[in-house]
Amino acid sequence: xxxxxxxxxxxxxxxxxxxxxxxxxxxxxxxxxxxxxxxxxxxxxxxxxxxxxxxxxxxxxxxxxxxxxxxxxxxxxxxxxxxxxxxxxxxxxxxxxxxxxxxxxxxxxxxxxxxxxxxxxxxxxxxxxxxxxxxxxxxxxxxxxxxxxxxxxxxxxxxxxxxxxxxxxx
Length: 170
Description:
By secondary structure, this protein is of the alpha+beta class.
């Protein structure tokens, strides 16, 4: 998948300071946060929607569900480019410098294949068991986001990026 080119970023750490890898930091943040903001676009207007998410172990795919009779569904069907924003503000609200955030860019696909529906439904239900009836409804669509890139922000302005290996968990 193509996306915008990688940013030139600089990491600032002291010589003796050991930090978790960017992949580990992103993985921890994504696994800690059960909800995210899905960013879509349509008719020249951006939209943000709260979604319950789950991510594959390799961080290459995310999954969420939505009713078909919504603007969100229509916009997803019109444009497969999405961003998903995940942050730690609910756990670190006392100090803005401790908040981390990720903007995930990718392409979205509605899942229709029975095997994929089963696999990704199980992934979402393992994290959000309260969605069992919602996912079983014929009016609910399940979407997979094929991740192109993660932009990780820490200390309010330090931006690093990471892309999962191509062809991972899809």
